[in-house]
């Protein structure tokens, strides 16, 4: 059975990014799909049961196609002593927020096998993968189930690996993207060596024959037109949808995206042990230079601190994931944002023609 076309999933080539941590929820995905885009749910950090419940809710609200994103299991390559040293450094944060650090050994596979089993038993239209590439066996099983598969890649070799394994499409992520870099292998020697989207996209297009979804810093319809012209079949936006009322992001996080207090973004390991782009706040400045490579151990370690900071109304201790274009965020509904993006896309195409 041949896979459907990527462009058949939505009226417009606009994908709402699967932002883990609560931002991407059934309400946001429903609103995006109703306006002609492709909505996504994020299974990362959720239990298999919670993932299934969100899928059920989305199906109750919408008949449009949608996607679910999975995190790949991570290798056990972290030095426990380095994580322990980082935990000692965070002792002051424990005292400040009045909460103990989390257990760094709370799990490294994000219940991947259980989530795959659920999605194969009760298939969804699309499944994407981050932090690695599934096996040929898994991708073939999804193909037989009628599910379209997408693998996130941050380099040409990663995109080629996805094609070789049998993915239906590749999400090409530029270094401008907010949140985690979806690298297949976390190599500290490559920190800050990522490639910008408009430089990476044509390189992947020349060597990979699969449909491409472009992601990284996209906030306007003109940028969507640019990546489509550069070889993408669709554009994925995350930060642009983060401030919408339908988004499940914390209100402090939403306000911070356009708050002049936060002047720039940075790739940091401070919150999770993996490079992720966030607004630079006190936590990043004080702990980023010392955070070890150690995902998801560091993520589990800092989770209670981040939760306590949010509960206490302190954005200086939160992970404020944001793409480089965050200042272009528009506080409008997801449906209205889709209308604006579509208008800008059409205008850019007409100007180009």
From TrEMBL:
It catalyses: 3 propionate 3-nitronate + 3 O2 + H2O = 3 3-oxopropanoate + 2 nitrate + nitrite + H2O2 + 3 H(+). Its cofactor is FMN. Gene3D superfamilies: Aldolase class I (3.20.20.70). The keyword Flavoprotein applies. It comes from the Bacteria. Keywords: Detoxification, Flavoprotein, FMN, Monooxygenase, Nucleotide-binding, Oxidoreductase. GO terms for molecular function: nitronate monooxygenase activity; nucleotide binding. GO terms for biological process: response to toxic substance. It holds the Pfam family NMO. Nitronate monooxygenase that uses molecular oxygen to catalyze the oxidative denitrification of alkyl nitronates. Acts on propionate 3-nitronate (P3N), the presumed physiological substrate. Probably functions in the detoxification of P3N, a metabolic poison produced by plants and fungi as a defense mechanism. Belongs to the nitronate monooxygenase family. NMO class I subfamily. This is Probable nitronate monooxygenase. It comes from Actinacidiphila paucisporea.
């Amino acid at each position: 059975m041949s896979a459907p076309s990527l462009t058949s999933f939505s009226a417009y080539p606009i994908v709402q990014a699967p932002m883990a941590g609560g931002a991407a929820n059934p309400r946001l995905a429903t609103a995006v799909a109703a306006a002609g885009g492709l909505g996504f749910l994020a299974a990362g950090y959720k239990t298999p049961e919670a993932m299934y419940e969100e899928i059920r809710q989305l199906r109750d609200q919408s008949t449009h196609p949608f996607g679910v994103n999975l995190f790949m299991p991570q290798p056990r390559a972290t030095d426990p002593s380095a994580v322990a040293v980082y935990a000692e450094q965070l002792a002051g944060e424990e005292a400040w927020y009045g909460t103990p650090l989390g257990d760094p050994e709370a799990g490294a596979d994000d219940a991947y096998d259980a989530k795959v089993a659920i999605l194969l038993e009760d298939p969804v239209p699309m499944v994407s993968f981050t932090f690695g590439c599934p096996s040929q066996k898994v991708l073939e099983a999804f193909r037989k189930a009628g599910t379209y598969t997408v693998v996130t890649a941050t380099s040409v070799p990663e995109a080629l690996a996805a094609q070789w394994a049998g993915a239906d499409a590749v999400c090409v992520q530029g270094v401008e993207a907010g949140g985690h870099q979806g690298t297949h292998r976390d190599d500290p020697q490559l920190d800050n060596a990522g490639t910008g989207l408009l430089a990476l996209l044509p390189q992947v297009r020349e060597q990979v024959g699969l449909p491409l979804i472009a992601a990284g810093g996209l906030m306007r319809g003109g940028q969507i037109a640019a990546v489509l012209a550069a070889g993408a079949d669709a554009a994925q936006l995350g930060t642009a949808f983060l401030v919408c009322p339908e988004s499940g992001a914390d209100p402090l996080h939403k306000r911070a995206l356009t708050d002049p207090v936060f002047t720039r973004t940075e790739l940091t390991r401070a919150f999770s042990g993996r490079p992720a782009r966030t607004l630079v706040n006190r936590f990043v400045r004080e702990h980023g230079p010392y955070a070890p490579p150690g995902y998801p151990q560091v993520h589990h370690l800092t989770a209670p601190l981040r939760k306590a900071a949010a509960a206490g109304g302190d954005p200086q201790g939160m992970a404020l994931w944001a793409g480089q274009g965050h200042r272009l965020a528009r506080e409008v509904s997801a449906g209205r944002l889709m209308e604006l993006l579509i208008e800008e896309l059409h205008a850019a195409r007409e100007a180009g023609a």
